[in-house]
Amino acid sequence: MYTIFFCIYAVIALVGIIFYGLRELHMLQLNGYKTPEHCWWIKKNFKRYIFPLVLFIVQFALLIFPKKLFLSLLCAMNLFFIIANKPSKKFKKPLKYTARVKRMMTTYFILVAIFYAPAIYHVFVPSGLPDSAVPLSTFLGALSIGSALYLTPILVPLANIINKPLEKSIQKWYINDAKKMLAACPNLHKVGITGSYGKTSMKFYLSELLSSQYETLKTPESFNTPMGVTITVRRDLKPTHEYFICEMGARRVHEIKELCDIANPHDGIITSVGPQHLETFGSIENVVNTKFELADSISALGKIYLNGDNELIRKKAPDYPNAVTYGLREGNDWRAADVTVSDRGTEFIVISPEGQTCRYTTKLLGEHNVQNLLGAIAYAVGTGIPMEKLVLPVKRIAAVPHRLQLLDKGNGVTFIDDAYNSNPNGCRAALAVLGLFDACRILVTPGMVELGAKQEELNYEFGQEAAKACDYIVLVGKNQTVPIYNGIKASGYDMEKVYVADNLNDALAKVQVYQTDKKKIVLLENDLPDNY
Q1: 3 state DSSP class of 235
Q2: Tens digits of per-residue pLDDT, 250-306?
Q3: Angle formed at CA 70 by CA 67 and CA 72, multiple of 5 degrees
Q4: Which residues are CB-neighbours of 346 under 8 A, at least 6 positions away?
Q5: How distant, in Å, are the alpha carbons of 204, 326, 363, 405 from that of 398?
Q6: Count of alpha carbons within 13 angstroms of residue 1, beta-carbon side
Q7: Domains, the chain, ranges and CATH?
Q8: pLDDT for 195-212, tens place per residue?
């Protein structure tokens, strides 16, 4: 009877191990499978681990009870833990059961099995002691199972560390295969795009322009990691492709160089440099040097297109004789002038280095989009496409999803979906776009993250700027939005028009409540991933 009871306890704990393990594995995946970054994330979110730690310690206190009561209390405690951690939440970006995840799950359950071994030994080798006391074997068995459950936050990254050599060898094989495929296409022209912000938009815009004349392949969505680029090449590259546009993202020094070693770009575009991912880069100097790893990889025969309106880029531009600058400011090789922005779109004139001009119209909103379009036009003309032949392709370009995408939901509400934005410059640009509309302007935001020591200061400034542009402000999340709230308050804003929501659904419900005679324009600025 006791053996059956113990087995029930072990099964209940195993259910908790599965639930808790999948949750931690999901967080590890969102953290890019980077164990140091994940450990930092655990430290930052230590409050969510206090409860499991308390339950782990409570196990020892329960040893004073008789054996059956001891197991009953453990069962109840584990059931309570399972209910608290049941996978009921709908995630914005759910766990993807990739081959790597499946391998890691195998290693994780092997580690769990090691913890279960003393329990199995206890079941099949009875101690012979009376039921009135908890024998050592019961203690070891229950403690081992409890440890497997409550120490899951350690076991999951440990499984990742154990698998690291295997994963590196697998990735190396796939990367080398992608390199061979690229090398087998000598007529394929490769262009790398990087930047603290704007690189995905630039990729889409450039793809639209080049596709009007060339067979073009681009990395999809935000496939800007080594494996993302590798997957694109191995899955989508065809002998007929003439241009390959490779978006390159980075969170650490030398990660752009790693991508350049794979793609070996002929040309490059750097859209921006700014304070993003400072927690992993460490300093703005590291951000600058990492973005310019793309420029360093371009041969003397290639060109590096630089956003000359960006101060940090402008300072580095003279170091590169093959640089071509673009922007709205005087002194750039390619310039945009006579920019007219309204809530219906943007008009502007492009001036080439030779003085040739051409007027363009676009449905895209804001001057910052003109910068990206200008860079794309400059590169496209450099491939041999006449400026006037780009007028229609520019006009056809639609907003990139979740990047200042205008969505009319009816009922007098229009959303500006800028959910993928998370940097100070982009936030300022989005507020400027919001200000174009003669409407009730509402901001919904959780603020910016991964800005290191500057995060509080930059969010405070964001709050001050929001106070100037918005009729109502809805902050999402009580903790990380404190600096924004303080910035709004310091600006003398009517705090009755500020609402702090628990989550996005709460925020959107509040938007519907606001009464106004004007149409509502709601800016959705940044949408934090599930690990925040």
Answers
A1: helix
A2: 988 999 999 999 999 999 999 999 887 777 888 999 999 999 999 999 988 999 999
A3: 110
A4: 339, 340, 361, 362, 364, 365, 366, 367, 369, 370
A5: 9, 22, 7, 8
A6: 3
A7: 2-165 (no CATH), 185-396 (3.40.1190.10), 405-525 (3.90.190.20)
A8: 998 899 999 999 999 999
